[in-house]
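Input record (one chain):
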Amino acid sequence: MTASYRNTLALSLLLVFSLTLPLLGQPAADAVSGITSRQIEGHIRFLASDLLEGRDTASVGERLAASYISNQLSRIGFEPAGDPTEDGRSWFQAFPMHSTTPLLVSSCC
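The corresponding structure, as predicted from the sequence alone:
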């Protein structure tokens, strides 16, 4: 699992959980009416759409998905806590990454 995939997955899960956080302080009836299955389906359909090209590492689709998720988090009141920028903070955080290439071992003949 690549770091980019893990980041996209983590942001996706954060988005889903963040949609429910504002509802925790509300009575159960209000919480249920606060988010509809249609809204959740819309988020899932967008993140799973062909437009995002599978969200492969370093792809345009990955950047679109990350932008979509950060915009949704911002829309519901979250504040970015990533790397510092000229305007404050980013939704993203750079980190060093090391890659390896597995060796193919053949047991043929």
